């Protein structure tokens, strides 16, 4: 039976020791991608929050750094963001050193215990050594609590269109927009979200930024909005809205103005991608929107069967904004840097599938560290069912039901599940958002996670699992006649 280090991913970021949740403060500077994270260094469950820190040159392999920000008498350090203040608008710069400014939530546990409602406020800290060490601003908090219990997770972006800093902040059942010239003084500009979209839980960890619509000069603003619970397949989930921003107010596109609880605008439909946000300060000429999420779910995150460490991040992803008719959707695919780790590969065209057919086994490609891409040019079957299995009888089932236009992912027999009733009590599903004749997919496998990107990233599903033994085989079965998979390619990913 596998445990702890056997379960530690080969390439998804995990903290060396103890607890991690949301990604925080991500920025790119001087060749390095920085990733901070909600961290409790003293136990494997949630506790007094610190900002852990890791760096990478490519967002794929990470090096953990000393803890960056510690809680203090004002409270725990909750989620937030960081920006590179290239023009020293904050005045924190010194001797020509560019300040990095972190904007986070102070969560005062004493206020919470006392039953008050104003124990979350927004604060800043700055770094003059490229994010290694931080000095908290003496004027904190920069935004006081107006009497809203859930008032947190500030995400700041430089809005070059209106020449201002813009902050989006989650406030219970909505998000608030603030603007600033110096990162210290903030003005409330507007709010969005009451009664729009999914509200099965508290809104948390928003992100807000402009994006080009693929293949055009059109710019739209995207609001990424996590909520917990109320996710598409239960528990934590991340929805999004697309619209316009006039420098003060966000107006969603017509199609999204009356969005109800049930909708298909989710960054990821699986159960394990939460609180994800994008990197700041990616060079303009690169222009990518790069995203990472916490690969777990509050329903069971603190109970998963690892002891010495808990939780991983998703693989870094590139987001794109696509338009079809009047509707806009966000697509995501693994950041292209992952391809630099491809080693052994296997490619085949016109694979005949009859009954259950083996596609790959672990003697060819190690399925605990693999990238698999497939393409079926014409969907003639009703059900395309993939199965990962091992000799212990564990199996992970996923696929596409063409009669329902629905993807599915079933981890109920994928190894250890009994640590939580919410882990595998139901099969996760996701709508197909493409009407193409064929289907393509990217499958990213690590020891304890699967990330599925269908239809060029239009439908994404991420979930974790804990098999008793590594996967030994990937097969596919058809319920109807023989068919052929037009192309499959598989790569072992190698990290050392
Ligand atoms: C989301 C969240 C945030 C909060 C942080 C605390 O997972 O609840 O809203 O800032 O975690 O660790």
From TrEMBL:
<keyword id="KW-0326">Glycosidase</keyword>
<comment type="similarity">
    <text>Belongs to the glycosyl hydrolase 32 family.</text>
</comment>
<protein>
    <submittedName>
        <fullName>Glycoside hydrolase family 32 protein</fullName>
    </submittedName>
</protein>
<keyword id="KW-0378">Hydrolase</keyword>
<feature type="domain" description="Glycosyl hydrolase family 32 N-terminal">
    <location>
        <begin position="12"/>
        <end position="328"/>
    </location>
</feature>
<dbReference type="GO" id="GO:0005987">
    <property type="term" value="P:sucrose catabolic process"/>
</dbReference>
<dbReference type="InterPro" id="IPR013189">
    <property type="entry name" value="Glyco_hydro_32_C"/>
</dbReference>
<dbReference type="GO" id="GO:0005737">
    <property type="term" value="C:cytoplasm"/>
</dbReference>
<dbReference type="Pfam" id="PF00251">
    <property type="entry name" value="Glyco_hydro_32N"/>
</dbReference>
<dbReference type="Pfam" id="PF08244">
    <property type="entry name" value="Glyco_hydro_32C"/>
</dbReference>
<dbReference type="InterPro" id="IPR018053">
    <property type="entry name" value="Glyco_hydro_32_AS"/>
</dbReference>
<dbReference type="InterPro" id="IPR013320">
    <property type="entry name" value="ConA-like_dom_sf"/>
</dbReference>
<dbReference type="InterPro" id="IPR023296">
    <property type="entry name" value="Glyco_hydro_beta-prop_sf"/>
</dbReference>
<dbReference type="InterPro" id="IPR013148">
    <property type="entry name" value="Glyco_hydro_32_N"/>
</dbReference>
<dbReference type="InterPro" id="IPR001362">
    <property type="entry name" value="Glyco_hydro_32"/>
</dbReference>
<dbReference type="GO" id="GO:0004575">
    <property type="term" value="F:sucrose alpha-glucosidase activity"/>
</dbReference>
<feature type="domain" description="Glycosyl hydrolase family 32 C-terminal">
    <location>
        <begin position="337"/>
        <end position="491"/>
    </location>
</feature>
């Amino acid at each position: 039976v596998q445990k702890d280090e056997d379960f530690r991913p080969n390439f998804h970021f995990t903290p060396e020791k103890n607890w991690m949740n949301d990604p925080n403060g991500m920025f790119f500077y001087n060749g390095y991608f920085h990733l901070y994270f909600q961290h409790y260094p003293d136990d494997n469950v949630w506790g007094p929050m610190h900002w852990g820190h890791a760096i990478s040159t490519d967002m794929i392999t990470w090096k953990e750094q000393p803890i960056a920000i510690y809680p203090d008498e004002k409270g725990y350090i909750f989620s937030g963001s960081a920006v590179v203040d290239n023009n020293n608008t904050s005045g924190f710069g010194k001797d020509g050193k560019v300040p990095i400014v972190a904007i986070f939530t102070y969560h005062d546990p004493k206020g919470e215990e006392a039953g008050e409602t104003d124990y979350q406020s927004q604060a800043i800290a700055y770094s003059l050594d490229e994010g290694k060490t931080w000095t908290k601003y003496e004027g904190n908090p920069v935004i006081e609590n107006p009497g809203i219990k859930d008032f947190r997770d500030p995400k700041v972006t430089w809005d070059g269109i209106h020449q201002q800093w813009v902050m989006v902040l989650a406030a219970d059942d909505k998000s608030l927009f603030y603007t600033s010239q110096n990162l210290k003084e903030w003005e409330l500009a507007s709010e969005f979200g009451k009664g729009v979209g999914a509200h099965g839980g508290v809104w948390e960890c928003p992100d807000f930024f402009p994006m080009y619509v693929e293949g055009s000069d059109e710019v739209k603003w995207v609001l990424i909005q996590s909520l917990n619970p109320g996710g598409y397949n239960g528990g934590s989930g991340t929805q999004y809205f697309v619209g316009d921003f006039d420098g003060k107010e966000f107006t969603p596109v017509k199609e999204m103005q009356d969005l109800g609880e049930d909708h298909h605008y989710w960054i990821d439909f699986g159960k394990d991608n939460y609180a994800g946000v994008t990197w700041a300060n990616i060079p303009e000429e690169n222009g990518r929107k790069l995203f990472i999420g916490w690969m777990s779910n509050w329903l069971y995150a603190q109970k998963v069967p690892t002891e010495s460490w808990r939780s991983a991040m998703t693989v870094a992803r590139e987001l794109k904004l696509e338009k079809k008719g009047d509707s806009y959707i966000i697509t995501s695919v693994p950041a292209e840097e992952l391809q630099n780790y491809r080693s052994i590969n296997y490619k085949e065209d016109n694979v005949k599938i009859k009954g259950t057919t083996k596609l790959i086994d672990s003697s060819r490609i190690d399925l605990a560290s693999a990238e698999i891409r497939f393409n079926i040019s014409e969907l003639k079957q009703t059900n395309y069912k993939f199965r990962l299995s091992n000799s212990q009888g564990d199996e992970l089932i996923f696929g596409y039901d063409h009669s329902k236009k629905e993807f599915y992912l079933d981890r109920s027999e994928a190894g250890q599940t009994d640590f939580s009733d919410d882990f595998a009590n139901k099969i996760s599903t996701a709508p197909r958002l493409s009407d193409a004749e064929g289907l393509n997919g990217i499958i990213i496998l690590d020891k304890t996670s699967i990330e599925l990107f269908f239809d060029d990233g239009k439908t994404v599903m991420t979930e974790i699992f804990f098999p008793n033994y590594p996967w030994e085989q990937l097969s596919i079965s058809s319920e109807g006649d023989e068919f052929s998979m037009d192309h499959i390619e598989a790569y072992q990913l190698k990290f050392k």
